[in-house]
Amino acid sequence: MKLMKIAGDCKSDDCPAVHLTDRGSLFIVGAIVGADDRPAVGPGEQVVEVSIGLVREALHALGS
């Protein structure tokens, strides 16, 4: 699978970012939300938190 970073302003790979896959989906990198603060999730799912600014940057990169 190929990834292209479309949002996130860091030069390393250890900060919030959004990547577009060659499958037409998005990978979101963010801080994992603890069980006490997140909604219910299914098996194999995680909730991550990113800023609204990062989401706006990703939408802009996608032409939305």
Question: How many angstroms separate the termini?
Answer: 24 Å
Rg calculated over all Cα atoms? 13 Å
The 3D shape can be described as globular
Largest sheet: 3 strands, antiparallel
Q: Provide the succession of SSEs.
A: EEEEEH
Which runs of at least 5 residues are low in confidence (pLDDT < 50)? none
Number of helices: 1
Question: How many structural domains are formed by the residues?
Answer: 1
Structural class: alpha+beta
SSE order and pairing:
Elements: E1 3-7, E2 17-21, E3 26-29, E4 31-32, E5 48-49, H1 52-61
How would you characterize this protein structure?
The protein has 64 residues and is α+β, with helices and mostly antiparallel strands. 16% of the residues lie in helices and 28% in strands. It has one domain. It contains one helix and five strands; from the N terminus they run βββββα. The chain has a three-stranded antiparallel sheet. A two-stranded antiparallel sheet has the order 4-5. It is globular.
